[in-house]
Design a protein that fits this description.
The protein has helices spanning about 5-10, 15-25, 30-40, 40-50, 55-65. By secondary structure, the chain is an all-alpha fold. The protein has one domain.
Length: about 100
């Protein structure tokens, strides 16, 4: 699938959209995890966040992602962190959120 159609699919599915936004908002979830689960590159995530968040919220998010506080980029992460998710987090696979 081309990225445009993936973005459109995510935007039309409220559950997937909420999950992408949640993962993007979390400081410790790298863009690689979002790409692994949803097939979205960093630019796609930025596009989705820009379309769905208020302008002020989007600007705060972008500022935080690039501030050094966030570990969204693998290069900025500690070498001690080698996984995408917390060991206590329920398994998430194939874009499906586990039953709660």
């Amino acid at each position: 699938m081309k990225n445009g159609s993936i973005i459109h699919q995510i935007l039309s599915d409220a559950i997937s959209l909420d999950r992408v936004i949640e993962m993007a908002w979390e400081d410790r979830t790298p863009f690689e995890a979002i790409e692994s689960q949803f097939g979205l590159r960093e630019a796609d995530v930025v596009s989705i966040m820009r379309k769905t968040l208020r302008r002020s919220s989007f600007e705060l998010w972008r500022k935080r992602v690039h501030s050094g506080i966030s570990q969204k980029h693998r290069e900025m992460r500690s070498e001690d962190i080698s996984r995408f998710k917390c060991t206590r987090q329920r398994p998430i696979s194939l874009n499906k959120i586990s039953k709660r």
